[in-house]
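Quality-control log, excerpt.
Job 1 of 2 completed; input and output follow.
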Amino acid sequence: MLLVINKETGACTPIQLNRDTMTKIQILGVRGDVAGTFTGQLALAHTYGSGERDSCLNTAEAVSNLLYGVGIDHYISITMDGVAILNDLVGGVEVEVMDDFSSIDSTLVQGETVTLMGNHALTYVRTRGGLEDSSNLHRMERQRQYLIALQKKLTEKADSDAWFATNAILQVSDYLTSDCTAEKLSKIADLLSKSDVSEIRTIDGEAKVGQEYMEFYPDEDALQALVMNVFYEKVKK
Protein backbone atom coordinates (compact mmCIF):
# COMPACT_ATOMS: atom_id res chain seq x y z
CA MET A 1 0.00 0.00 0.00
CA LEU A 2 1.35 3.40 -1.01
CA LEU A 3 -0.01 6.54 0.66
CA VAL A 4 0.32 9.75 -1.33
CA ILE A 5 -0.21 12.80 0.91
CA ASN A 6 -0.62 16.31 -0.45
CA LYS A 7 0.39 18.55 2.46
CA GLU A 8 -0.97 21.66 0.77
CA THR A 9 -4.50 20.40 0.11
CA GLY A 10 -4.76 17.78 2.86
CA ALA A 11 -5.70 15.12 0.33
CA CYS A 12 -4.48 11.55 0.80
CA THR A 13 -4.63 8.95 -1.96
CA PRO A 14 -4.01 5.29 -0.98
CA ILE A 15 -2.80 3.07 -3.83
CA GLN A 16 -3.07 -0.69 -3.34
CA LEU A 17 -0.36 -2.54 -5.26
CA ASN A 18 -0.82 -6.14 -6.33
CA ARG A 19 1.97 -8.24 -4.81
CA ASP A 20 2.15 -10.24 -8.05
CA THR A 21 2.92 -7.14 -10.15
CA MET A 22 5.85 -7.78 -12.49
CA THR A 23 8.51 -5.07 -12.23
CA LYS A 24 12.27 -4.56 -12.05
CA ILE A 25 13.76 -5.68 -8.74
CA GLN A 26 17.27 -5.28 -7.35
CA ILE A 27 19.21 -8.37 -6.28
CA LEU A 28 21.06 -7.63 -3.04
CA GLY A 29 24.33 -9.37 -2.19
CA VAL A 30 25.25 -10.69 1.27
CA ARG A 31 26.65 -7.26 2.23
CA GLY A 32 23.58 -5.43 1.00
CA ASP A 33 25.19 -4.19 -2.20
CA VAL A 34 23.27 -4.34 -5.49
CA ALA A 35 24.37 -7.46 -7.37
CA GLY A 36 22.04 -7.10 -10.35
CA THR A 37 18.38 -6.81 -11.30
CA PHE A 38 15.63 -9.08 -12.56
CA THR A 39 11.95 -8.81 -13.46
CA GLY A 40 9.69 -10.53 -10.98
CA GLN A 41 6.73 -10.22 -8.65
CA LEU A 42 6.82 -7.09 -6.49
CA ALA A 43 6.60 -9.14 -3.28
CA LEU A 44 9.98 -10.71 -4.07
CA ALA A 45 11.73 -7.38 -3.46
CA HIS A 46 11.18 -7.81 0.28
CA THR A 47 12.71 -11.30 0.30
CA TYR A 48 16.15 -9.85 -0.44
CA GLY A 49 17.82 -8.73 2.76
CA SER A 50 17.13 -9.29 6.44
CA GLY A 51 13.41 -8.61 6.31
CA GLU A 52 13.99 -5.26 7.97
CA ARG A 53 15.51 -1.96 6.74
CA ASP A 54 17.30 -3.35 3.68
CA SER A 55 14.22 -5.30 2.57
CA CYS A 56 12.02 -2.21 2.99
CA LEU A 57 14.43 -0.04 0.99
CA ASN A 58 14.54 -2.65 -1.76
CA THR A 59 10.74 -2.78 -1.85
CA ALA A 60 10.54 1.02 -2.02
CA GLU A 61 12.99 0.97 -4.95
CA ALA A 62 10.89 -1.66 -6.74
CA VAL A 63 7.74 0.43 -6.25
CA SER A 64 9.59 3.48 -7.57
CA ASN A 65 10.65 1.49 -10.65
CA LEU A 66 7.05 0.44 -11.21
CA LEU A 67 5.84 4.06 -10.98
CA TYR A 68 8.34 5.48 -13.49
CA GLY A 69 10.84 6.71 -10.92
CA VAL A 70 8.52 8.51 -8.49
CA GLY A 71 10.39 8.87 -5.20
CA ILE A 72 9.21 7.06 -2.06
CA ASP A 73 9.89 9.30 0.96
CA HIS A 74 9.31 6.88 3.84
CA TYR A 75 8.48 3.27 4.56
CA ILE A 76 6.58 1.49 7.33
CA SER A 77 6.44 -2.29 7.59
CA ILE A 78 4.45 -4.29 10.14
CA THR A 79 4.77 -8.02 10.66
CA MET A 80 1.82 -10.41 10.67
CA ASP A 81 1.94 -10.63 14.49
CA GLY A 82 1.26 -6.90 14.71
CA VAL A 83 -2.02 -7.02 12.77
CA ALA A 84 -4.10 -8.42 15.64
CA ILE A 85 -2.63 -5.90 18.08
CA LEU A 86 -3.35 -2.89 15.85
CA ASN A 87 -6.84 -4.26 15.15
CA ASP A 88 -7.65 -4.61 18.86
CA LEU A 89 -6.28 -1.16 19.74
CA VAL A 90 -9.26 0.36 17.92
CA GLY A 91 -11.71 -2.03 19.59
CA GLY A 92 -11.99 -4.40 16.65
CA VAL A 93 -13.07 -3.81 13.06
CA GLU A 94 -16.59 -4.46 11.77
CA VAL A 95 -17.02 -6.03 8.32
CA GLU A 96 -19.62 -7.99 6.39
CA VAL A 97 -17.95 -11.35 5.69
CA MET A 98 -17.38 -11.57 1.93
CA ASP A 99 -16.46 -15.25 1.59
CA ASP A 100 -17.37 -18.71 2.82
CA PHE A 101 -14.73 -19.39 5.53
CA SER A 102 -16.55 -22.49 6.86
CA SER A 103 -13.63 -24.83 6.12
CA ILE A 104 -11.19 -22.45 7.85
CA ASP A 105 -13.06 -20.63 10.62
CA SER A 106 -16.69 -21.45 11.42
CA THR A 107 -17.17 -18.11 13.20
CA LEU A 108 -16.72 -16.19 9.94
CA VAL A 109 -20.07 -16.80 8.23
CA GLN A 110 -20.50 -15.38 4.73
CA GLY A 111 -22.94 -12.46 4.65
CA GLU A 112 -22.94 -11.88 8.40
CA THR A 113 -21.64 -8.66 9.95
CA VAL A 114 -18.94 -9.39 12.52
CA THR A 115 -16.48 -7.42 14.62
CA LEU A 116 -13.07 -8.90 13.91
CA MET A 117 -10.91 -9.29 17.02
CA GLY A 118 -7.39 -10.63 17.48
CA ASN A 119 -6.19 -13.20 14.98
CA HIS A 120 -9.61 -13.27 13.31
CA ALA A 121 -8.57 -10.02 11.63
CA LEU A 122 -5.41 -11.64 10.28
CA THR A 123 -7.36 -14.68 9.10
CA TYR A 124 -9.81 -12.44 7.27
CA VAL A 125 -7.27 -10.30 5.42
CA ARG A 126 -4.65 -12.98 4.79
CA THR A 127 -6.51 -16.17 3.83
CA ARG A 128 -6.67 -17.36 0.21
CA GLY A 129 -6.41 -21.14 0.23
CA GLY A 130 -9.64 -23.02 0.86
CA LEU A 131 -11.90 -20.24 -0.43
CA GLU A 132 -14.08 -20.44 -3.52
CA ASP A 133 -12.17 -17.53 -5.07
CA SER A 134 -8.57 -17.94 -3.92
CA SER A 135 -7.09 -15.33 -6.25
CA ASN A 136 -4.97 -12.48 -4.90
CA LEU A 137 -7.20 -9.99 -6.74
CA HIS A 138 -10.19 -11.12 -4.69
CA ARG A 139 -8.16 -11.09 -1.46
CA MET A 140 -7.16 -7.50 -2.28
CA GLU A 141 -10.85 -6.63 -2.50
CA ARG A 142 -11.39 -8.07 0.98
CA GLN A 143 -8.34 -6.18 2.26
CA ARG A 144 -9.71 -2.90 0.89
CA GLN A 145 -12.98 -3.55 2.72
CA TYR A 146 -11.07 -4.12 5.96
CA LEU A 147 -8.72 -1.14 5.53
CA ILE A 148 -11.59 1.28 4.90
CA ALA A 149 -13.26 0.15 8.13
CA LEU A 150 -9.95 0.22 10.04
CA GLN A 151 -9.14 3.74 8.82
CA LYS A 152 -12.53 4.95 10.07
CA LYS A 153 -11.90 3.48 13.53
CA LEU A 154 -8.37 4.91 13.66
CA THR A 155 -9.70 8.39 12.83
CA GLU A 156 -12.40 8.12 15.50
CA LYS A 157 -9.83 7.11 18.11
CA ALA A 158 -7.42 9.88 17.11
CA ASP A 159 -10.21 12.48 17.26
CA SER A 160 -11.24 11.44 20.77
CA ASP A 161 -7.75 10.90 22.20
CA ALA A 162 -4.85 13.23 21.33
CA TRP A 163 -2.34 10.62 22.51
CA PHE A 164 -3.88 7.64 20.73
CA ALA A 165 -1.50 7.67 17.72
CA THR A 166 1.61 7.89 19.91
CA ASN A 167 0.41 5.16 22.26
CA ALA A 168 -0.60 2.91 19.36
CA ILE A 169 2.83 3.25 17.75
CA LEU A 170 4.49 2.32 21.05
CA GLN A 171 2.18 -0.71 21.39
CA VAL A 172 3.15 -2.10 17.97
CA SER A 173 6.77 -0.85 17.94
CA ASP A 174 8.19 -4.37 18.38
CA TYR A 175 6.50 -5.36 15.11
CA LEU A 176 7.39 -2.22 13.12
CA THR A 177 10.26 -1.40 10.80
CA SER A 178 10.45 2.19 9.57
CA ASP A 179 12.88 4.94 8.63
CA CYS A 180 10.77 7.30 10.78
CA THR A 181 11.13 7.96 14.50
CA ALA A 182 8.14 7.39 16.78
CA GLU A 183 7.65 11.17 16.82
CA LYS A 184 7.66 11.34 13.02
CA LEU A 185 5.21 8.44 12.74
CA SER A 186 2.93 10.14 15.26
CA LYS A 187 2.96 13.34 13.17
CA ILE A 188 2.17 11.36 10.00
CA ALA A 189 -0.69 9.59 11.80
CA ASP A 190 -2.03 12.94 13.01
CA LEU A 191 -1.79 14.34 9.48
CA LEU A 192 -3.67 11.32 8.12
CA SER A 193 -6.43 11.65 10.71
CA LYS A 194 -7.07 15.20 9.44
CA SER A 195 -6.64 14.39 5.75
CA ASP A 196 -9.34 13.93 3.16
CA VAL A 197 -8.66 10.27 2.36
CA SER A 198 -9.95 9.25 -1.06
CA GLU A 199 -11.07 5.81 -2.17
CA ILE A 200 -8.29 3.24 -2.43
CA ARG A 201 -6.92 3.26 -5.96
CA THR A 202 -5.78 0.11 -7.76
CA ILE A 203 -3.96 -0.49 -11.03
CA ASP A 204 -5.80 -2.19 -13.88
CA GLY A 205 -4.05 -5.09 -15.56
CA GLU A 206 -4.07 -8.78 -16.32
CA ALA A 207 -3.26 -11.70 -14.03
CA LYS A 208 -1.62 -14.68 -15.73
CA VAL A 209 -0.26 -18.02 -14.60
CA GLY A 210 3.55 -17.88 -14.91
CA GLN A 211 6.01 -20.75 -14.95
CA GLU A 212 5.53 -21.26 -11.22
CA TYR A 213 3.37 -18.51 -9.73
CA MET A 214 0.77 -15.91 -10.67
CA GLU A 215 2.03 -12.85 -12.51
CA PHE A 216 0.20 -9.52 -12.78
CA TYR A 217 0.92 -7.25 -15.72
CA PRO A 218 -0.28 -3.63 -15.28
CA ASP A 219 -2.05 -1.91 -18.14
CA GLU A 220 0.55 0.68 -19.16
CA ASP A 221 -1.99 3.31 -20.21
CA ALA A 222 -3.88 2.96 -16.93
CA LEU A 223 -0.64 3.00 -14.92
CA GLN A 224 0.63 6.15 -16.62
CA ALA A 225 -2.74 7.85 -16.13
CA LEU A 226 -2.76 7.01 -12.43
CA VAL A 227 0.78 8.33 -11.89
CA MET A 228 0.05 11.56 -13.74
CA ASN A 229 -3.25 12.05 -11.91
CA VAL A 230 -1.96 11.35 -8.40
CA PHE A 231 1.62 12.64 -8.41
CA TYR A 232 1.59 15.64 -10.74
CA GLU A 233 -0.34 18.88 -10.60
CA LYS A 234 -2.47 19.82 -13.56
CA VAL A 235 -1.13 22.94 -15.26
CA LYS A 236 -3.85 25.53 -15.87
CA LYS A 237 -3.89 26.94 -19.39
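Job 2 of 2 completed; input and output follow.
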Amino acid sequence: MFRPAARKSSARSALAMLQLIFHATVRSVRRTHGNAVIGLLLNILQTVILVVVFYVMFDLLGLRGNAIRGDFLLYVMSGIFMFMTHTKATSAVVGSDGPTSPMMKHSPMNPIIAIAAAALGSLYTQILSAGVVLFIYHAAFTPITIHDPLGAFSMLLLAWGTGVAIGMVFKAAMPWQPEFVGIFSTVYQRANMIASGKMFVANATPTYILAYFTWNPLFHIIDQARGFVFLNYNPHYSSIRYAVTIMIICIVIGLMGEFYTRKHASSSWGAKR
Protein backbone atom coordinates (compact mmCIF):
# COMPACT_ATOMS: atom_id res chain seq x y z
CA MET A 1 0.00 0.00 0.00
CA PHE A 2 2.77 2.43 0.92
CA ARG A 3 5.40 1.03 -1.45
CA PRO A 4 6.64 3.39 -4.16
CA ALA A 5 5.53 2.52 -7.67
CA ALA A 6 8.58 1.32 -9.58
CA ARG A 7 8.45 1.83 -13.32
CA LYS A 8 9.49 -1.34 -15.13
CA SER A 9 11.49 -1.33 -18.33
CA SER A 10 10.32 -3.25 -21.39
CA ALA A 11 12.98 -5.91 -20.90
CA ARG A 12 12.03 -6.37 -17.26
CA SER A 13 8.34 -6.63 -18.10
CA ALA A 14 9.07 -9.20 -20.80
CA LEU A 15 11.21 -11.22 -18.39
CA ALA A 16 8.46 -11.13 -15.75
CA MET A 17 5.92 -12.34 -18.32
CA LEU A 18 8.19 -15.19 -19.43
CA GLN A 19 8.66 -16.22 -15.82
CA LEU A 20 4.90 -16.17 -15.28
CA ILE A 21 4.37 -18.27 -18.42
CA PHE A 22 6.96 -20.76 -17.16
CA HIS A 23 5.23 -21.25 -13.81
CA ALA A 24 1.81 -21.43 -15.49
CA THR A 25 3.20 -24.05 -17.91
CA VAL A 26 4.45 -26.17 -15.01
CA ARG A 27 1.01 -25.90 -13.42
CA SER A 28 -0.60 -26.93 -16.73
CA VAL A 29 1.65 -29.99 -17.06
CA ARG A 30 1.00 -31.08 -13.47
CA ARG A 31 -2.75 -30.58 -13.82
CA THR A 32 -3.23 -33.97 -15.52
CA HIS A 33 -1.91 -35.86 -12.49
CA GLY A 34 -0.72 -35.05 -8.99
CA ASN A 35 2.59 -36.73 -9.74
CA ALA A 36 4.24 -35.07 -12.75
CA VAL A 37 6.24 -38.20 -13.68
CA ILE A 38 3.14 -40.41 -13.64
CA GLY A 39 1.30 -37.83 -15.76
CA LEU A 40 4.06 -37.93 -18.38
CA LEU A 41 4.15 -41.75 -18.30
CA LEU A 42 0.39 -41.87 -18.84
CA ASN A 43 0.74 -39.65 -21.89
CA ILE A 44 3.54 -41.85 -23.25
CA LEU A 45 1.40 -44.94 -22.61
CA GLN A 46 -1.50 -43.35 -24.48
CA THR A 47 0.75 -42.72 -27.48
CA VAL A 48 2.09 -46.28 -27.41
CA ILE A 49 -1.41 -47.76 -27.21
CA LEU A 50 -2.56 -45.68 -30.20
CA VAL A 51 0.48 -46.79 -32.23
CA VAL A 52 -0.13 -50.45 -31.37
CA VAL A 53 -3.84 -50.22 -32.20
CA PHE A 54 -3.19 -48.71 -35.62
CA TYR A 55 -0.37 -51.19 -36.29
CA VAL A 56 -2.68 -54.13 -35.57
CA MET A 57 -5.52 -52.56 -37.56
CA PHE A 58 -3.27 -52.03 -40.60
CA ASP A 59 -2.04 -55.61 -40.31
CA LEU A 60 -5.50 -57.16 -39.98
CA LEU A 61 -7.00 -55.12 -42.83
CA GLY A 62 -4.09 -55.91 -45.11
CA LEU A 63 -3.15 -52.26 -45.63
CA ARG A 64 0.57 -52.69 -45.11
CA GLY A 65 1.12 -52.89 -48.86
CA ASN A 66 -0.27 -49.36 -49.27
CA ALA A 67 2.31 -47.85 -46.92
CA ILE A 68 5.50 -46.07 -47.90
CA ARG A 69 8.49 -48.27 -48.62
CA GLY A 70 10.55 -48.32 -45.45
CA ASP A 71 9.94 -49.06 -41.78
CA PHE A 72 6.22 -49.70 -41.45
CA LEU A 73 6.00 -48.87 -37.75
CA LEU A 74 7.81 -45.58 -38.38
CA TYR A 75 5.17 -44.86 -41.04
CA VAL A 76 2.45 -45.43 -38.44
CA MET A 77 4.22 -43.33 -35.82
CA SER A 78 4.76 -40.42 -38.23
CA GLY A 79 0.99 -40.02 -38.49
CA ILE A 80 0.20 -40.73 -34.85
CA PHE A 81 2.71 -38.21 -33.49
CA MET A 82 1.37 -35.39 -35.69
CA PHE A 83 -2.22 -36.28 -34.89
CA MET A 84 -1.61 -36.47 -31.14
CA THR A 85 0.34 -33.20 -31.08
CA HIS A 86 -2.36 -31.36 -33.02
CA THR A 87 -5.27 -32.78 -31.03
CA LYS A 88 -3.64 -32.35 -27.62
CA ALA A 89 -2.75 -28.73 -28.42
CA THR A 90 -6.33 -27.96 -29.46
CA SER A 91 -7.85 -29.54 -26.36
CA ALA A 92 -5.29 -27.89 -24.06
CA VAL A 93 -6.00 -24.41 -25.41
CA VAL A 94 -9.78 -24.93 -25.33
CA GLY A 95 -9.55 -26.14 -21.72
CA SER A 96 -7.28 -23.34 -20.49
CA ASP A 97 -8.43 -20.71 -17.98
CA GLY A 98 -10.80 -18.15 -19.46
CA PRO A 99 -11.45 -14.48 -18.64
CA THR A 100 -13.90 -15.38 -15.84
CA SER A 101 -11.65 -18.01 -14.24
CA PRO A 102 -10.61 -17.47 -10.60
CA MET A 103 -6.98 -17.43 -11.76
CA MET A 104 -7.67 -14.18 -13.63
CA LYS A 105 -8.27 -12.41 -10.29
CA HIS A 106 -4.51 -12.33 -9.77
CA SER A 107 -3.28 -9.15 -11.43
CA PRO A 108 -0.31 -10.48 -13.45
CA MET A 109 -2.44 -13.26 -14.94
CA ASN A 110 -4.45 -12.88 -18.15
CA PRO A 111 -6.07 -15.28 -20.65
CA ILE A 112 -3.21 -14.97 -23.17
CA ILE A 113 -0.71 -16.21 -20.59
CA ALA A 114 -3.06 -19.08 -19.71
CA ILE A 115 -3.34 -20.04 -23.40
CA ALA A 116 0.43 -19.83 -23.88
CA ALA A 117 1.04 -21.96 -20.80
CA ALA A 118 -1.46 -24.63 -21.88
CA ALA A 119 0.00 -24.71 -25.39
CA LEU A 120 3.62 -24.98 -24.18
CA GLY A 121 2.68 -27.66 -21.65
CA SER A 122 1.07 -29.70 -24.41
CA LEU A 123 4.12 -29.27 -26.66
CA TYR A 124 6.46 -30.37 -23.88
CA THR A 125 4.55 -33.56 -23.14
CA GLN A 126 4.17 -34.50 -26.80
CA ILE A 127 7.83 -33.93 -27.68
CA LEU A 128 8.88 -35.94 -24.65
CA SER A 129 6.44 -38.74 -25.50
CA ALA A 130 7.54 -38.92 -29.14
CA GLY A 131 11.21 -38.84 -28.17
CA VAL A 132 10.83 -41.63 -25.60
CA VAL A 133 8.83 -43.86 -27.96
CA LEU A 134 11.30 -43.38 -30.83
CA PHE A 135 14.29 -44.00 -28.57
CA ILE A 136 12.84 -47.22 -27.15
CA TYR A 137 11.94 -48.48 -30.62
CA HIS A 138 15.39 -47.56 -31.97
CA ALA A 139 17.33 -49.01 -29.04
CA ALA A 140 15.29 -52.10 -28.18
CA PHE A 141 13.80 -53.27 -31.49
CA THR A 142 15.40 -52.00 -34.70
CA PRO A 143 17.54 -48.99 -35.65
CA ILE A 144 15.62 -46.33 -37.54
CA THR A 145 16.79 -43.63 -39.91
CA ILE A 146 14.91 -40.37 -40.50
CA HIS A 147 15.79 -38.79 -43.83
CA ASP A 148 15.47 -35.16 -42.65
CA PRO A 149 15.08 -34.96 -38.84
CA LEU A 150 14.94 -31.15 -38.81
CA GLY A 151 12.19 -31.08 -41.42
CA ALA A 152 10.21 -33.77 -39.59
CA PHE A 153 10.53 -31.87 -36.31
CA SER A 154 9.41 -28.65 -38.00
CA MET A 155 6.26 -30.47 -39.16
CA LEU A 156 5.67 -31.55 -35.56
CA LEU A 157 5.91 -27.90 -34.51
CA LEU A 158 3.56 -26.93 -37.33
CA ALA A 159 1.05 -29.56 -36.20
CA TRP A 160 1.25 -28.07 -32.72
CA GLY A 161 0.93 -24.51 -34.07
CA THR A 162 -2.17 -25.27 -36.14
CA GLY A 163 -3.71 -27.05 -33.16
CA VAL A 164 -3.07 -24.02 -30.95
CA ALA A 165 -4.46 -21.66 -33.60
CA ILE A 166 -7.68 -23.64 -34.10
CA GLY A 167 -8.01 -24.06 -30.35
CA MET A 168 -7.78 -20.27 -29.93
CA VAL A 169 -10.77 -19.83 -32.25
CA PHE A 170 -12.78 -22.32 -30.20
CA LYS A 171 -11.55 -20.71 -26.99
CA ALA A 172 -12.67 -17.22 -28.06
CA ALA A 173 -16.14 -18.50 -28.94
CA MET A 174 -16.53 -20.74 -25.87
CA PRO A 175 -17.97 -18.11 -23.40
CA TRP A 176 -20.68 -17.14 -25.89
CA GLN A 177 -21.99 -20.65 -26.64
CA PRO A 178 -20.18 -23.11 -24.35
CA GLU A 179 -22.36 -26.16 -25.12
CA PHE A 180 -22.28 -25.78 -28.91
CA VAL A 181 -18.59 -24.86 -29.10
CA GLY A 182 -17.66 -27.70 -26.74
CA ILE A 183 -19.51 -30.22 -28.90
CA PHE A 184 -18.07 -28.78 -32.12
CA SER A 185 -14.55 -28.89 -30.69
CA THR A 186 -14.97 -32.54 -29.68
CA VAL A 187 -16.39 -33.43 -33.11
CA TYR A 188 -13.42 -31.75 -34.81
CA GLN A 189 -10.91 -33.67 -32.70
CA ARG A 190 -12.69 -36.99 -33.24
CA ALA A 191 -13.11 -36.37 -36.98
CA ASN A 192 -9.37 -35.96 -37.31
CA MET A 193 -9.00 -39.67 -36.55
CA ILE A 194 -9.99 -40.15 -40.20
CA ALA A 195 -9.83 -36.67 -41.78
CA SER A 196 -6.14 -36.25 -40.91
CA GLY A 197 -5.22 -38.82 -43.55
CA LYS A 198 -2.77 -40.64 -41.31
CA MET A 199 -4.11 -44.03 -42.41
CA PHE A 200 -3.25 -43.72 -46.10
CA VAL A 201 -0.65 -42.32 -48.47
CA ALA A 202 -1.83 -39.23 -50.35
CA ASN A 203 0.17 -40.00 -53.50
CA ALA A 204 -1.52 -43.41 -53.83
CA THR A 205 -5.06 -42.14 -53.19
CA PRO A 206 -7.50 -41.25 -56.01
CA THR A 207 -8.12 -37.56 -56.54
CA TYR A 208 -11.86 -37.78 -55.89
CA ILE A 209 -11.13 -39.16 -52.41
CA LEU A 210 -8.45 -36.56 -51.66
CA ALA A 211 -11.07 -33.83 -52.15
CA TYR A 212 -12.58 -34.87 -48.81
CA PHE A 213 -9.28 -34.36 -46.95
CA THR A 214 -7.45 -31.41 -48.53
CA TRP A 215 -9.41 -28.88 -46.44
CA ASN A 216 -7.67 -30.16 -43.30
CA PRO A 217 -4.29 -28.57 -42.50
CA LEU A 218 -3.33 -31.66 -40.49
CA PHE A 219 -3.65 -33.76 -43.65
CA HIS A 220 -1.08 -31.55 -45.37
CA ILE A 221 1.23 -31.64 -42.34
CA ILE A 222 1.20 -35.44 -42.03
CA ASP A 223 1.81 -35.93 -45.74
CA GLN A 224 4.66 -33.43 -45.77
CA ALA A 225 6.14 -34.97 -42.60
CA ARG A 226 6.32 -38.36 -44.29
CA GLY A 227 8.24 -36.71 -47.11
CA PHE A 228 10.83 -35.61 -44.55
CA VAL A 229 10.87 -38.94 -42.72
CA PHE A 230 11.20 -41.26 -45.73
CA LEU A 231 13.75 -40.95 -48.51
CA ASN A 232 11.52 -42.67 -51.08
CA TYR A 233 8.46 -40.44 -50.66
CA ASN A 234 7.90 -37.08 -52.31
CA PRO A 235 4.47 -35.56 -51.49
CA HIS A 236 2.59 -34.13 -54.49
CA TYR A 237 -0.89 -33.38 -53.13
CA SER A 238 -0.11 -31.40 -50.00
CA SER A 239 1.39 -28.02 -49.19
CA ILE A 240 3.20 -26.56 -46.20
CA ARG A 241 2.09 -23.08 -47.26
CA TYR A 242 -1.57 -24.04 -46.88
CA ALA A 243 -1.07 -25.22 -43.30
CA VAL A 244 0.94 -22.10 -42.39
CA THR A 245 -1.72 -19.85 -43.95
CA ILE A 246 -4.52 -21.53 -42.00
CA MET A 247 -2.48 -21.24 -38.80
CA ILE A 248 -1.87 -17.49 -39.25
CA ILE A 249 -5.51 -16.80 -40.13
CA CYS A 250 -6.81 -18.76 -37.12
CA ILE A 251 -4.33 -17.06 -34.76
CA VAL A 252 -5.46 -13.61 -35.92
CA ILE A 253 -9.15 -14.55 -35.60
CA GLY A 254 -8.52 -16.17 -32.22
CA LEU A 255 -6.66 -13.14 -30.82
CA MET A 256 -9.33 -10.74 -32.07
CA GLY A 257 -12.08 -12.91 -30.58
CA GLU A 258 -10.20 -13.34 -27.30
CA PHE A 259 -9.68 -9.59 -26.79
CA TYR A 260 -13.32 -8.88 -27.67
CA THR A 261 -14.56 -11.63 -25.34
CA ARG A 262 -12.35 -10.42 -22.50
CA LYS A 263 -13.97 -6.97 -22.65
CA HIS A 264 -17.50 -8.36 -22.50
CA ALA A 265 -17.03 -11.44 -20.32
CA SER A 266 -19.01 -11.69 -17.11
CA SER A 267 -18.94 -14.21 -14.27
CA SER A 268 -22.75 -14.47 -14.51
CA TRP A 269 -22.36 -16.28 -17.86
CA GLY A 270 -21.45 -19.44 -16.02
CA ALA A 271 -24.39 -19.23 -13.60
CA LYS A 272 -26.89 -22.08 -13.80
CA ARG A 273 -30.56 -21.40 -14.20
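Post-run check on job 2. The radius of gyration is 21 Å.
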